[in-house]
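[agent] plan:
  1. take the single chain provided in the ticket
  2. run structure prediction with default settings
  3. attach structure tokens to the ticket
  4. add a short note for the reviewer (M.T.)
[agent] executing step 1
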Amino acid sequence: MGSKICINFSINGVPMSAAPSTQDIIALLNVEEEIRLRVVPGAKVERLAIENASLKIWIRTAPEDGKANKAVISLLAKTLKLPKGAVTIISGHTSRDKRVRITLI
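[agent] step 2 finished; step 3 output follows
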């Protein structure tokens, strides 16, 4: 029969029942307004979690021709209710580990 997959989100080991809030994500920003990301491309469901003091993002898009990077920017901007131009990938364009600058308006 089918198997079930249970995913538990946590912040510093404390279980969460839902995705991180805007405030949780903003709290991860350093003084340069940058955040560390771990991206999981090709996921079945798009979601976010905080793990090890960085943001983990699952996106459906495959990592080809910059499409996954565009999806990361779009998802972060939508989650934070910011324009896409306020989210910029600083490093890690071809890696799952990225640094992103978020310009708060």
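[agent] step 4 note for reviewer: The first helix runs from residue 22 to 27.
[agent] ticket updated
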